[in-house]
Structures are given as C-alpha cells and as structure tokens.
Amino acid sequence: MSRKYEGCILLDPGLNEETLAGELLEIEKIVQSAGVTIVHKDLWSKRNLAYPIKKKTEGYYWIIYFEGEPQSIKKITDALKTRETVLRFLFLARNRFPEFEVADART
User: Distance (Å, rounded) from C-alpha 31 to C-alpha 40?
Assistant: First the structure.
C-alpha cells in the first residue's frame, strides 16, 4: 500500500553551490532507487540550527514529498546514513500533501 511522506534532509553548510547541486542529485537518485515517486522538492536556504550538529551551526534544508511503500523508508535511511554531507534527516508519514504549484514539482 503506497503512502505519502515528507522528508527533511539537513546538509553540510560548507558545500559550494556546484557540490550542493551534485549532492542533491545523488540523494534524489537514492530516493528514487527505493521505488518511490517524488511529488515535490524544495531547497531552502542555508539556515541557523537551534543547536550544533556535528560541530556545525548552519545547514541547508532540503524538503521532499514523495509516495511509496513503507519499506522504502528503510532503504532511504540506510543509504543516507553513509553520506558524509548529510547532517540529519527525518521522514514523516502524511495524510495528504500541502498545496503547491504543479509547475514546482520539478524544482
């Protein structure tokens, strides 16, 4: 049974623009290889953290909405744990997605 999920992935603030774009592409491949369908994604700017994580006080937030099977979350989290640029991540089950533009689904 396919479910709706929201993910927040916190990335290292020391990444330059080109490296960040490449890392987001790699993470997107990881997510898609778990057999899910990405509905929407959004890169937030670099933001201050409430407390240091891995000695970092800032981070890039990448928000992603997708649909998939519950076991896909385990595959994604196992792969993200090995990425040095990922500071933290969190996935939540959603009843429905928030409103966003259809044209934004590819950003």
Answer: 12
